[in-house]
Amino acid sequence: MDLKGIVNGCRSSEPESIRALYDLYSDTLMKQCMFYVRSRNEAYDLFHDAFLIIISKIGQLRNPLKLESWMTSIVRNLALQHIKERKRHLPETEMADVIDEVDSPYYQPVPLDVLMSMIERLPEQYGNVFRMSVLDGLSHKEIGAILGIEERTSSSDLFRARAILK
Predict the structure, then answer these.
(1) Please, which residues have CB within 8 angstroms of residue 110's CB and are 6 or more apart in sequence?
(2) What is the C-alpha separation between 121 and 165, in angstroms, rounded?
(3) pTM of the model
């Protein structure tokens, strides 16, 4: 079944098309959820909520060739909404300990999987700000509005996240 057939089948609520869509994109969408929340259980909840929205709103998709980016936007918006609703601020106990300065101004490139693992280990708010700023390209004003923090706090958190990652 091709992508257009899957989308049309999902619009008609055909179980085999919905299953095909799930099989094709569940891993990709779940990984995206994991970028936004640390807990696997929270990520599964976000993913399943997003998938229900995708299935219920797939009739609004104009171009089946843009399916993946459309679904990614839904997941991203739902994850950001989830973060905003929680409005959890970083407790002092989660603050990183002293950061050792590196003598050399040159750093060897870090493999992507190692970098993503490092980002996941950042304190939660630092990780959220880093992902939104660096990966999603949001401004500090937008990040502040989403997380319910000041622009300056977003900027500071990004600076500290980068320092920890160094």
Answers:
(1) 118
(2) 10
(3) 0.56
Residue 130: which H helix or E strand, with range? helix 124-130
Answer for the pair 81, 52: CB distance below 8 angstroms, yes or no.
Answer: no
H/E run at residue 23: helix 15-36
Report helix, strand or coil for 24: helix
Q: For each of the chain's 166 residues, which pLDDT tens digit applies? A: 788 999 999 999 899 999 999 999 999 999 988 888 878 888 888 898 899 899 989 999 989 889 999 999 999 888 888 887 776 544 444 434 333 333 334 445 667 677 778 888 889 889 889 888 887 788 899 999 989 999 888 888 988 888 888 7
